[in-house]
Design brief:
Layout: E1 11-16, H1 19-30, E2 33-37, E3 44-47, E4 52-57, H2 61-67, E5 84-87, H3 91-100, E6 104-111, E7 117-122, E8 128-132
Parallel strand pairs: 1-4, 5-8
Antiparallel strand pairs: 2-3, 3-4, 6-7, 7-8
Domain VOC: 8-134
Length: 141
């Protein structure tokens, strides 16, 4: 494959009610560093290693006509078709920090059969966030 066609995952964009509040929440609840919050509060970014977590309003008029309206779950019994997964060395401490900073409890951290410790919370917009330990997967040939 040509080097100019090699992909690099750049952003995960989360559509939220209030960009500034979500950036502040993720910074405090999950420990991310704020990279950018534009003066209009219509775009925010967090540093998260090899990619960027970005936030934009639910009703993004620049793309809504082109790609359609964002669909929001109608209750906590539904969820978005994506979840955010964040790795921490100390899952229990990270989970406690998230809850203390406004994350809604979904399930307490527990050991899973796939050898990961995992707890679930919801962010201030109802997005499911998995707080888990890193799992080393065997390399595939």
């Amino acid at each position: 494959m040509s080097s100019n066609l090699k992909p690099a995952f750049a952003y995960t964009i989360i559509y939220v009610k209030d960009v500034a509040k979500s950036v502040d929440f993720y910074s405090k609840a999950f420990g991310f560093t704020v990279r950018r919050l534009d003066h209009s509060n219509r775009w925010g970014e967090l540093e998260s290693g090899g990619t960027t977590i970005a936030f934009t309003p639910l009703h993004q008029h620049e793309t809504e006509d082109l790609t359609g309206a964002v669909q929001i779950p109608s209750s906590n019994r539904e969820r978005n078709p994506i979840e955010i997964c964040i790795d921490y060395p100390d899952v229990d401490a990270a989970y406690q920090r998230a809850v203390e900073n406004g994350a809604a409890v979904v399930s307490q951290p527990e050991a899973k059969v796939w050898k990961q410790r995992v707890g679930y919370v919801r962010d201030i917009d109802g997005m499911v966030v998995r707080i888990g330990s890193h799992v080393n997967q065997p390399k595939q040939n």
